[in-house]
Structures are given as structure tokens and as C-alpha cells.
Amino acid sequence: MSGAFRLSGGLVDRDHRLRFAFNGRQYEGLAGDTLASALLANGVRLVGRSFKYHRPRGIFSAGSEEPNALVTLGEGRAALPNTRATMVELTDGIAAFSQNHLGPLGFDPLAVTDLLAPFLGAGFYYKTFMWPKAFWERVYEPLIRKAAGLGRLPTDPDPRLYDKGHLHCDLLVVGAGPAGLAAARAAGAAGARVILADEGFRPGGRLLAERHEIDGMSGADWAAAQWQALAALPNVRLMPRATALGLYDHGIAGVLERIAPEARAVDKPAEIFWRVRARRIVLAAGATERPLVFPGNDRPGIMLAGAVQAFVNRWAVAPGRRVAILANHDGGEALAAELAGAGLDIAAVIDARGDPQVLGTKGRGGLRSLTLADGRRIACDALAVSGGWSPNLHLAVHRDGKPAWRDDIQAFVPGAALPDGLAVAGAAGGSFGLRDCLDEGTRAGQAAATACGFRPPGAPGFTTDNTQHPPAPFRELSPGQGRAWVDLQNDVTAKDIRLAHREGFRSVEHLKRYTTLGMATDQGKTGNLAALALMAQQTGRGIPETGTTRYRPPYVPVSLGALAGREGGRGFKPVRRTPLHDWSAARGASFVESGLWLRAEWFAQDGESGWRDSVDREVMAVRTAVGICDVSTLGKIDIQGRDAAAFVDFVYCNGFAKLPVGRVRYGLMLREDGIVMDDGTCARLGEHHYLMTTTTANAAPVFQHLEFVRQCLRPDLDVHLVPDTDSWAQIAVAGPKARALLTRLVDAPFDISNAGFPFMACAELTVCGGTKARLFRISFSGELGYELAVPAPFGSALAEAMTGAGADLGVTPYGVEALNVLRIEKGHVSGPELNGQTAPAHLGLRRMAAQGKDYIGRVLAGRTRVDGAETARLVGLLPCDRAQPLTAGAHLLEPGAPRTQAHDLGWISSVAFSPSLGHDIGLALLNDGAARIGTRLRAVDAMAGAEVEVEIVSPHFIDPEGARQRG
Amino acid sequence: MIIYHPLLGPRDSDEFTYLGDASLIDRPDGLAEDAAARFAEYVYMRDNPAGTHRELWFHAAGDQSWLVVTRNTATHEITHVELASDVARARRAGR
Q1: Contact call for A713 and B83, based on CB within 8 A
Q2: What is the pLDDT of residues A450-479, one digit of tens each?
Q3: Structural domain that includes position A402
Q4: What is the DSSP string of A463-506?
Q5: CB of A555 closer than 8 Å to CB of A395
Q6: Distances in Å between the alpha carbon of A145 and those of A51, A139, A557, B43?
Q7: Looking at residue A866, what is its pLDDT?
Q8: pLDDT of residue A141
Q9: Residues A217, A75: one domain?
Q10: What span, in angstroms and rounded, lies between the C-alpha atoms of A149 and A694?
Q11: Measured between CB atoms, which of A703, A716, A863 is closest to B36?
Q12: What ipTM was estimated for this complex?
């Protein structure tokens, strides 16, 4: 037998036994059990310790509202802390562990906290741990964190797979209880595309827990029959184990589907987060039972009455041998008869509306008896408590809706103003009679189908009961006679609420934050209404005037893994590799991330002691022989159309209209506020055809900007744009022997002589015997330079051809680090200078801007202070003692000036060791920089505590006249 | 949110990037006499209404079109979606 507390009957499979472990001890359960029902079947009542006082706690509910029975499922990396035992579908071999205790669960030394409870009321931590300040982080926080809390997160990466997906439907039905099943049947029969999501693993909702007959069938059989009928409809998607977490704009619901949460299936995702776009939604999420507030109401064995009913009827488990019932409505006697019929011994049925009141409870590890105010002691090991039911209205008010109070059921229901397309049916709307639930569900399903253009067939009525037990208004039993819990998970008592009120926290939102009421992982599903009622009593206002705190998604806790889906690890940031990646790797390149790209940073050779050796060698190869560099990552945008010239002229600040075909020009692109957006070259390949290059990082933003200009600002221009970065592999060839190398690659009769193909020329040609290519004579290094582009698949072959053909010329692959040294030696600006704060004038490029045309940024680039004496100018720097290093980011100060912001004159933007010059060089943005050339300043790096005397020079360190690149 | 693209039908807002106030379409003439004052207004001044707002969205993970979306910033209700190029052409024709 699967446990001493197992009864006969129920919806469990007695032929299918499952082994499981709790705190290392082996137990047996049945297929159809939850972890909670299996534990109870084995007589395990104590399952955890409370958050703050380390009180012994047991299973309190049978569903997702569970505040107490949080366990850690699994071990090691796969451990899932704070899992609700009531929601874990029992599978063979699972291992669960209780949480938040220092010793064994039965003897927790931290339970001493409970004895200190008189001192640990609301706000205790705020009031107590204030001095000394130095203790906040070093003493108090570690101590409190160790003592308080729930489960522990594993620190290793989660091994589970998670996924995300989109679903579309005419109707989403939330909840497969009687109302939801009826709604799905009605809409499904009409032909509408229906998704029916239910958080349980067996459909039926309360039909599984209560004893009803519908059309002559038991409730559970009826639910199974509906489910089966729906499964046969091709237009219906059934989603068990799927919780609707939230309702968002435009009818989008977030639905969390649990597939294989225990992570033993490696081929399936543990959870899938669905975004369901539904034209109509029927909220049939049922209701949550509320407990009553009385002294000692938190012991293991004290349980919601509906949960007792569910354990007995659905899982055939007795929560105790002798059960007492405490309810503030007429349902207590009926439940007693039902439980007695199942073979349970009924100790008492106590009417919470009258006297005598419950004065207290006894039993350390679990309930043993109740004491009534008249002195009677009732021996019992389980107490079923009911304070009425609160509709699960969350989704109806997630989009800023206001709940409305209904006095007759003492509960909040969805307000009259519902989100577009959403209807509420059954207990979620406050209708607790079964026939009402079924009728409302049918009507809501029909209405949704009709609204989506379907014609629902007529539906017969249901033959069933419509019993309801409206509760009495809330009252606290035996107030002041002992601690009475309101929020079990965060250990908030009725006394804490009164204290908060005395201390002035009277708005519910303040009450919540001060006492932490409703802020635990269960979001106070069972306790919130009692708290509101207590607060209302204190303030003398009614519950509706007191109001509720705001309902926010998610409805139940959701793992971050499910929200991330596959966008973790490498999926978070995909890697882009250039066509030359493998070729570079084979030549010893190490790679650096540049946006999503991996770019070769340098090519280490045997005998080199560090990266500087490699970079210095590569730089000198470019300056003295020839180097080749993969520049495929530069953005390329193809611009064509009759008005291409006018378009290009409008987006660059310098003139482009008169650029001849077959020529390239450096272009500076501004934002409309006059700050530099990007720079690059733009080649005119034909009368109506330009090829723009962008910096690697700005390829996508520049394209978006150009489309904005084209569509929004200049729809009059006939021009089209195509992003073309990935189509081409492009290699920079630079150095005095660059032409000698390329002469060996270009096909005849192309004339690559200086006269035939001068500086800033471009051409379409063929290379290596017929491969189509584009050649640009441009130079970032200041040397004789070209960039040669071939279709991406030929990239590696071209690089191989270059190294092969130029072996005698000393052809040397170089990486982005050498590229950077070369451009700093030449004084070319790059990312550190184009930092979103600099205008052309700052960079010494003001004279580039055209006068006679309108262009993006024209007006404000001229208007800002950049022409004033106090603004930055790009300058070069040398350390006065050439042996000293410079650091990028250091600030420039006058000799003798104090190290304060007021005396800050600028900062060093780029620094490199120049192998050509034999010492460090730098670029800086310096106030009044042009006038300071020839002077000396201090470069102060406060972070490193370094200070270097520097000489201000022109930013062009090598070949300032530019003779080499033209030669 | 769902944006009803005039050419492509209902699309998830995840496919779009947001720019802001659609008044950016009305770029003043940079060569006009009063350009400085008009550009200061154009670049820096925005209305920030709690209610109906015309704004620019870019279909980055789609057809690369810019849209003018009329959206209620308080409720996220979208009442109108146009191609920005159509709006821009109409504005130019009306000048």
C-alpha cells in the first residue's frame, strides 16, 4: 500500500506505484499523486520551516496558492528551490528536500527565533539594525540572510533547456474547470480556434475535488469526457500544466507550460513560455479559498477545507485520523458528512460565525488539539478551515483594471470595465454554483465564437446542482489571545498589521511594504483578504474603501530560465565570423569581440614574447613592406537610384554631388544635433550607384538612419538602399609594396599604375583570373593602400593568393591592434574620438563641412559652442620623457593645477606604442587644443595614480603631408 | 503589442524599434533664414502626451519600413498605422 493514510477510491492509479524520496528517506506514491498528496499519504505532515520564525509548517493547500510546502526538487546543478509540493506531479525517482532549517527538519536550532517573536514584529529589522553603519553589509546582512529565507539557488548554470514560442487563436480559455471546459466546448463546436490552458496535469478543476453529478455522470468523469471530446477537435489545442501568468496589451497572454521540470529529459524543454495572441479570452481560473485568522493557526495539519476535500476525494488521502472543521459558512456540516462517508473520524464542526471561538491550538510538529474559548479541548490531528473563496480575477485586472467588492460573497470580483476581448466565467467572476459556472462558461464560449465570426450551435442546459455557501463577513477569532497568522509564507501576523496601523502605515500599499504582507512567492493568494479586513477594522473604513494592492503579473512564480528561453549563453549574443575567420585562425590569429563580430587582433609567431612583439612586427611590415588586413566587418550599404547623388550629398556633411564616377571620398555623417554619427568612405561606382562603408559597430544604426532619411525626410528622392556587408570579403593591402603585390593579382588589362589608378580611385574589375572584385585606393594607415573586395565565398582564397603571390615582398597579415596603431600614428579618428560627444570642429574637421548645401546636422553643428575657445580640439601627445607610458582616459591639467574637475582641460582618447617612433604616442581632446600645440601639460590618471608630463603636438605623427599614400 | 503594418498585417512589436514623435518627419529647411530657431525646436522640443501620440516605429526585423503609429500612451491602444513615406509625401504636398 502506498502509505498508511491512503483511503479507497480517488483518481490515482493503484497499479502504478512510484518511488520518491523526501529528505533522503524513501517513500512510495501512486501515479496521479502530487508530491503533496504522496507525502500526506505517507503521514509526512511537517514539510518545512517558516521564513522568519522557523515555525514548523505543513501542507496547507492543494494547488498553486500553496504558501507553506515549498521544497527543493532535485540536487546539485539541477536543484529547483521553492517548488510548491502541491504542484509537483509525482514521477518515479524524484527527490525533494525541505528548506530553511539549520539542523534536521524536526529539530531546527533557528526555531529559537520563534521565542523572540515578541520582539520581531513588523519593521523590526528597519528599527534594530541601524547602528553602527559599518555593520550593515559586513555583519547584519550576512546574519539575517543566513537565518531568514527560502530555498538556496544552485550557483552552477541550470542544465535544463527552456524555450519560448508564439501561439495564435480565436479564443484562449484560462482554466479547465467546469466553466472553462464548457466555454471551450461551446467555442470549439462552433469551429473557432481554441486554446484551453490549465495549470494542473488533470483537467476538471474543483470537479476533481468535490462530489457533483453533471447529466448523470460524476464530475470527474464528465470533465474527462469533455477533455476527450475537445481533443478530437482539430481546431482545439489542449494545454495541461500551463499557467496563464499575465495579460498584456492587445490580447497577449503569457502562458507558462511545464513540460519536464525535473530535468531528467534532456531532449525536451523543462518549460516553455508562450506568448498567446488571442482575439478573445475567457477567464475561468476559478477561486482560491481563504483561511481564518485565529491563535496558532499555522500548525502542520491545519489546512484549507477545500484542500482537505481534494486530498480525500481526488487523491484518496486522509490528511489526519481525526478531523475538525472550522468554517464561517454553512458548508462545514456538508463537508463533515462527506468526510465521514470517506471513513474519516470527525472531531468537531465549529461554526466560526458564533461562539465559542477557537482560542488556540497545540502540537509541536503537528496539530494535536484545539482549545475553545469555553475551555473545551478537542483532540484532532487535522483541521479544515474555510473563510470563503476569493475569485482568481488577476488576469482581468492586470491591465490596470479595478476589482469591485461584492458583499454577498465577501469577495472582490473583476470590475465592470474589463479589458477588450476578455470575459469572465464561473468562480473567477464570483459565481460559485456549479450550474451557474457551466451556463456562464457556455455563454462566454458562444459569445467569443460569435465575435470571431463563427455561428455556435445551440447548447442544451446542464442537469446538476447549484449549491453555494456564502461566507459571513471576516472576523478575527479570539483577537489578542496569541499569534494569529495572516500571511503564512512571510510570517506576518494580525498583530503586525495592527502595529503597522499604529505606526501610520494606513494605505494598503504601505501596509504591504512595511509588513511584507503578500510579498512572498505566493503573493498572498490565501492571506491578502484577511489582511485587508483587519486593516479596514483598524481604520474604521470598509474593505472596498480600503481597496486592494495592485495585481501584477506573474500570477505564479516563473523561472528566469523560462523568460530567457534559448537566449542564454551563446544564444544571448550570436557570434559573427568573417569569411576570412578560418584562414586567420590557421595563421595563429587571436580574436577580439567587436560588436557581434570576432576580428583577428594579431597574429603571434614563434619566438614572440607577447602581443606587443606581434603588433610591432605587423606595424613595421606595413610601414616598410606590405601588410594585409581583414576589413570585411566594415558596414557596406549599396545606394542606387536616379537621385543617389542627391541622397548621399544630403546625409554627409561634406560635398558628394561632384564626386566623379570611379572615385572614393571620405565622408563624415552627422546627427541632426551636429554631433558626428559615423565616418567612412563612399565610392561612386556609377552615375547612379554609390557604395557607402560604415564603421563596424555602426553598420545597422547607420542603415536605419539612412532609411529614416529616405522614407521620412526625402521621399521625393528616387533612391534605394541595400545593406550588403555580408556579401563581400574585403582585405586592406597597405605598405610601400602594396602595388607590387596587387599587380600580380589583378587581371589584364587593368591599369594599376599610379597614373592609371590614383589615390582615391575605385573600380570594378577581375582578379586571380576572372574573380569579380572591387578595388578601392584608400588608406587608413597613411601608406600606399588599397582595399580589395571579392564575393564572400572567395575571401579565404584571395587571402591565400595574396600571401602566396607576395612571399618575396614580405606580405604580412595584420590584425585590428596594428590597424589601430597605424591610424593613431596617422592621426585618424576612430571610435574613441567619435564618442557621441564630438562635432566636426572638435576633430579638426570643421572645414570639411560644405557651405552651399543643406545636410543632416548642418544647422546645429554650426550653432553649438564648438567654435568657442573653451571647447575641445583633437591634438597629439608625446611623453616628455619618451620612456614613459601614456594611458588612455588620463586627464590633462596645467602644470601645478590642482587635480579637480574645475582644472580639467581634456582627456586622452587613444594611446599606442609607435614602433616607427620608438615611444608612446596619444590622441587627446583638449580645450583650446590648437593654441596649445607646443606647450606642456600633465596627464593625470587618477585611477592608476600615475602622472606623466606630456608635450602637445599635431595629431599627425607620420607623414603629415600624406605623400606616402599618394605615391 | 501588435502593430497592424499597412503592407504586412498584424506584427508583434518585438520586430520593431521605436524612435519617437512623428513630428521628426517635418524637418525644417536647413538653408532658411530662421533655420537656427526652427532646428532648435525641431531637434530638442517634444510633446509628451498622456493620450494620443503619433510616433515613428522602424520595422527592423521586417521590411525596413518606417511607420507612423498613432498610439494612446495611457492605454497602448493603437488606432492608426501609416507608412511614414506616405505621411511624408502628403506633408510635402501640403507645404
Answers
A1: no
A2: 999 999 998 889 999 999 999 999 999 999
A3: 162-287+391-451
A4: -------PPPPP--SSTTSS--EEETTTTEEHHHHHHHHHTT--
A5: yes
A6: 11, 10, 21, 50
A7: 46
A8: 74
A9: no
A10: 52
A11: A863
A12: 0.98
